[in-house]
Write a structure and sequence with these properties.
Strand content: 25-35%
CATH superfamily: Gcn5-related N-acetyltransferase (GNAT)
Order of helices and strands: EHEEEHEHEEH
CATH class: Alpha Beta
Number of domains: 1
Helix content: 25-40%
Distance between the termini: 31 Å
CATH architecture: 3-Layer(aba) Sandwich
Number of helices: 4
Oligomer: single chain
Largest sheet: 7 strands, mixed
């Protein structure tokens, strides 16, 4: 059974990322890991940049990189954690995740310098009414 939860052992999570060939520093991020039988199979993080919360790091193991349902589940777990911690808006700026942001109902915006960014307002996101109005 796969367990997705907050991971306080950032050294183990960082080691997983390194093993996957990812050089992102997650020491200041909120980290969630997906584990199977105690072994990390994916990492996702929420990070603070310019006073905004970003969901830009989702790294599954090579075996799960094409499992869309699993990856979306990890992203929704992070969004739920953000919501439970009182964060009202989550941003996404990782081009590799743009299609996934759209699937999770993030709205595309363009910054003043012309870059694409995705924004999700969490108010009501996890309510029944909100789920019924999915695009």
């Amino acid at each position: 059974m796969i367990e997705i939860k907050l991971d306080e052992n950032k050294l183990q999570a960082q080691a997983f990322l390194t093993a996957q060939g990812v050089s992102t520093n997650i020491s200041n991020d909120i980290v969630m890991s997906a584990k199977e039988k105690g072994v990390i199979i994916a990492i996702g993080t929420l990070s603070l940049k310019n006073y905004k919360v970003f969901l830009d790091t989702i790294v599954p193991s090579k075996e799960l990189k094409d499992n869309l349902g699993f990856i979306l589940g990890l992203m929704k777990s992070l969004l739920n954690l953000a919501d439970l911690r009182g964060m009202r808006t989550v941003y996404g700026s990782n081009p590799a995740l743009f299609d996934l942001y759209k699937m999770l109902r993030f709205k595309k915006e363009v910054t003043d310098d012309g870059k694409k960014i995705y924004v999700l307002e969490l108010e009501g996101y996890f309510t029944v009414d909100s789920c019924q109005h999915a695009e």
